[in-house]
Amino acid sequence: MEKTIDENKQGESLILDQKEGNTRKLFIESYGCAMNFSDSEIVASILSEQGFNTTQTLEDADLVLVNTCSIRDKAEQTVRKRLEKYNAVKRINPKMKVGVLGCMAERLKTKFLEEEKIVDLVVGPDAYKDLPNLLAEVDEGRDAINVILSKEETYGDIAPVRLNSNGVTAFVSITRGCDNMCTFCVVPFTRGRERSRDPQSIIEEVNDLWNKGYKEITLLGQNVDSYLWYGGGLKKDFVKASDMQKATAINFAQLLELCAKAQPKMRIRFSTSNPQDLTLDVIKTMAKFDNICKHIHLPVQSGSNRILKAMNRLHTREEYFELIDNIRAILPECAISQDLIAGFPTETEEDHQDTLSLMDYVKYNFGYMFTYSERPGTMAERKLEDDIPEAIKKRRLAEIVQKQREHSEIRTRDYLNTTVEVLIERESKKSDQQWSGRTSQNIVAVFPKAHYKVGDLVNVDVNDCTSATLIGEATGYSKDN
Ligand code: SAH
Ligand code: F3S
Asked: What atom in ligand 1 is closest to the CA of residue 373?
């Protein structure tokens, strides 16, 4: 694969993996979680072997693929709107083919072909290696579909084509699927059972990224902390593994250590941690290695024990506090962020107050907050009535968001008049005179460009802030640059 490096005016390098001799054009866009963005890079890699290079211009495309999200109804509506846009382009260019990938493909299956006449191709998250065959069908004028979920597929053998990359940060997926069955969540249905990727292929990808100039990776999974490699196979089948497989199995703390040691200057992040699976070993490994970033995304969903139980989250409020206390004791400088859901079925004002008081205890650095959206096929949809009126969900969400804003501000202000280490990722959206990057704690910092460039690790004196962003001045390269 030939690499072309396109230096744009600001000096930020945009790396596009384009294969020489490829004549067909692929327009691919992604919605939803980081895993979808990472999957699209795998898809682009598979299709580059089929004569496709990527294009940023929809109108130029021979094939348009949209990698979809089903997590909330709104996410699905967004995709439906994009399909309308593709339809308008297809009217001008009838040869253009349109495919739907990801969670909506898996959830709706053939319904997609019936409901959306412009869709030629429907491919679920575990079937991307079948794309060459499916495209052959489409080329012959037939609709094509593969939504079979797999017990083994991890795409560990595919080197992703990095899309829209800043050349500095990259995602590396380490697990697929989820076995947790939180009652509100559609992911176990759309992404199948949990399986882990061979650690050797993970380390090879990390090394390869470092050699290509990348400075930070994020290990990805729906539930990274339950990573477990014992030679392949489903997580739930580990009980049947041989003694040898059990003795040599690699868990998430060990994988984290392997990655940290393989590239001691590569910054390492991971997401997402389900509180029930985040172990003390992981926290201790984070403490042991400077290059493991000090940030844990720790979705809690609710502060009420009754609601946590109804959600099938396998921990209590008290156990969550214990985990927070352990993180604070072992990693005092660690940032913690949340996901929260307002208005889960049967949620009372008291339950909601429990969520607010949990937030007061933790004082998260930041978070992602949602109103409950009933998803077809989930346990909550089958067993519980979506009984909280929309207006109440919205009011509770607004209170949660307001509280988070206050906490973010307190947390961000803590960095005033300190020096933080920042990896420069891109130009600031607000000013072409400023760089934007993130601290180890995943807090965004902006500062004048001076002589620094994208990919530099610099020390920044923080002299101002907004509720979410540090503002300062770079005073030199970090010792680890
Ligand atoms: N694996 C992660 C979550 C993945 S989904 C975990 O351990 O929690 C990302 C977030 O979307 C969830 O944390 C949850 O807050 C939100 N979410 C998922 N399903 C939802 C639904 N039906 N309605 C509203 N928010 C939802
Ligand atoms: Fe969803 Fe719970 Fe898994 S939120 S992705 S079922 S951990």
From this structure: 23
Ligand nearest to the CA of 274: 1
Tens digit of pLDDT for each residue in 190-248?
A: 999 999 999 999 999 999 999 999 999 999 999 999 999 999 888 889 999 999 999 99
CB 2 within 8 A of CB 15: no
pTM reported for the whole predicted model: 0.94
Nearest ligand 2 atom, CA 312: 2
Ligand nearest, relative to CA of residue 224? 1
Amino acid identity for residue 325 in this structure: D
| Residue 180 Cβ < 6 Å to ligand 2 | yes
Query: Scanning the structure block, which residue is given the tokens 């959830």?
Result: 107
Q: pLDDT tens digits for 141-177?
A: 999 999 999 999 999 999 999 998 899 999 999 999 9
* 177 Cα to the center of ligand 2, angstroms: 9
Encoded tokens for 244: 């040898």
Question: Is residue 176 a contact partner of residue 192, using CB atoms and an 8 Å limit?
Answer: yes
DSSP 71: S
Indicate which atom in ligand 2 lies nearest the CA of residue 274: 7
Phi and psi, residue 435, nearest 5°: -95, 155
Helix ranges (H only) for 363-467 are: 379-383, 390-413
How far, in Å, are 28, 66, 120, 243, 442 from residue 56 at the CA level? 8, 13, 21, 51, 28
Fold category of 419-477 in CATH: OB fold (Dihydrolipoamide Acetyltransferase, E2P) (2.40.50)
The superfamily in CATH containing domain 169-413 is tm_1862 like domain (3.80.30.20)
Q: How far is the CA of 234 from the centre of ligand 2 (A)?
A: 16
Give the number of the ligand closest to the Cα of residue 380: 1
**C-alpha to C-alpha distance for 191 and 183, rounded to whole angstroms:** 15
Dihedral over Cα of 173, 457, 13, 59: its sign: positive
Angle between helix 390-413 and helix 349-362 axes, rounded to 10 deg: 10
Q: Report domain 12-146's class.
A: alpha beta
The CA distances from residue 131 to 47, 112, 226, 470, in Å, are: 8, 17, 29, 44
Nearest CA to ligand 1 atom 19: 185
In the chain, count of helices (H) and strands (E)? 15, 23
Residues 6+ positions from 456 with CB-CB distance below 8 Å: 423, 424, 477, 481
The domain spans of the chain are: 12-146, 169-413, 419-477
What is the residue-wise DSSP string for 172-186? EE-EES-----TT--
